[in-house]
Amino acid sequence: MKKLSKLALIPVIAITFSSFASLPAKAADTTFTFNQFSESAGYKELQSAMDDFARDFVLAKSGSLRLITNSDAGEVVIGRYDALVTTNSNSTRIQISNADELMGSEMVDDYGVSNGKFFGSFESYENHTGITNTATVLSRLGKKNATLYKSDSETALSSVGLNSSAIDTLTMSYMESWNQMQLEFQPTATFSEVTTSANSINPADTDYGFDFQFTSQLSNDPCTGNVQITLTADGNHYSAITRAKVPYFGGIVVDLVISSTVEINPDQVVEVPNLDNAVDLKSFISMKSKIGAEAASNKKAKTMVTKAKALATKAKQAVSSNHLVQAAKSLKYTYTNIKNGLKLSSKVAGVSGSVCVTVVKKVIQTKTC
Predict the structure, then answer these.
(1) Burial, 220: exposed, middle or buried (Cβ in 10 Å; 0-12, 13-18, 19+)?
(2) Which of 17, 129, 136, 276 has a Cα at 20 to 30 A from 209?
(3) What average pLDDT does the chain have?
(4) Taking CA 367 as the corner, what is the angle to CA 362 and CA 369, rounded to the nearest 5 degrees?
């Protein structure tokens, strides 16, 4: 039995102190533990319907899936998560916008695979790896205007957490995104039966609903809520909305409303970006390591130069390459002799980076080499 999705899709919690769209007038009895809930007939029917919805799209490998999740406070959208998956037999592309309207920030992802070649935006790469010197690396590669990377190897993508299996798993998770509060991880959560009925507007569509309750870890008061899901008869749409009253300290009650919609368009074509000018990811990672190694070498060079100047001052002499050599030996640095000075090297992730330190006309010069 497949459990509810563990993927967190809530960009931000919508907080208000007024009433939201009302819960059912009389809440159903929430007596099931999660294990009992997941074994109930109504849950199994809902899960089977969701599995079918997801499986048809993934197996068809054709068209697009669009997921939009909003956190709302009245008419104001506080947070918005927008994901578009387009796929065919040869290509899959995932584009995500995760906006936090309260903080005024947005995180954007864009990546996929096309004919065996993985690709992604460097903005996505920065989001996943936290690196901050992308522009410097691209400039050193002579690709300062590049916005995309590409790779023939899934191994090179380990730092991004991306591979073909991850793309399929992510697609499936989007299908099951209605579990927006990740209720299976609430140790005190209890649930009602899942009710099933024809949709009041379009009777061919099916509505599912259940109530839940758990104890707030912040106030030890009960959090109560309701989930409503609608799956359309054509198998191309579903909507889900979670409404909950979450108690916090001091008697404050947070009204949380999270809504999701998923739409499948079997006719949408995958728009794979032009990869002719994309940067090979291995080359990018190698240059990033080289720059890191150069920085380490430069740090050693600064220490050595300080030592060399001190030796020259003590000897009451103008600084020379001999003082550099003496300083390197004193610091137990490994070096290579060059004209008028020496070369220091370091390694990051197996990639070497060097700086050359020379004395020209009694002036010390340091540069990458």
Answers:
(1) exposed
(2) 17
(3) 82
(4) 125
The string of pLDDT tens digits covering residues 61-75 is 778 888 888 887 556
Q: β-strands 190-191, 148-151: how paired?
A: unpaired
pLDDT class of 323 with cuts at 50, 70, 90: very high
Query: Which of 232, 233, 178 has its CA nearest to residue 209?
Result: 178
Rounded to the nearest 10 degrees, what angle do helices 41-60 and 164-175 cross at?
Answer: 140
Edge-to-edge strand order for the sheet containing 335-338? 335-338, 341-348, 351-360, 363-368
Is 160:129 a contact under the CB 8 Å cutoff?
yes
Nearest to 180 by CA among 2, 3, 42, 7: 7
Element (H, E) at 45: helix 41-60
- Using the Cα atoms of residue 25, residue 73, residue 94 and residue 67 in order, give the sign of their dihedral: positive
CB proximity list for 41: less than 8 A, separation 6 or greater: none
For residue 25, what are the contacts with CB-CB under 8 A and spacing of at least 6? none
Q: What is the pLDDT of residues 149-195, one digit of tens each?
A: 998 876 656 655 555 555 565 555 555 555 667 777 788 889 999 99
User: Are the C-beta atoms of residues 203 and 222 closer than 8 Å to each other?
Assistant: no
**Dihedral angle sign, alpha carbons of residues 174, 179, 180, 182:** negative
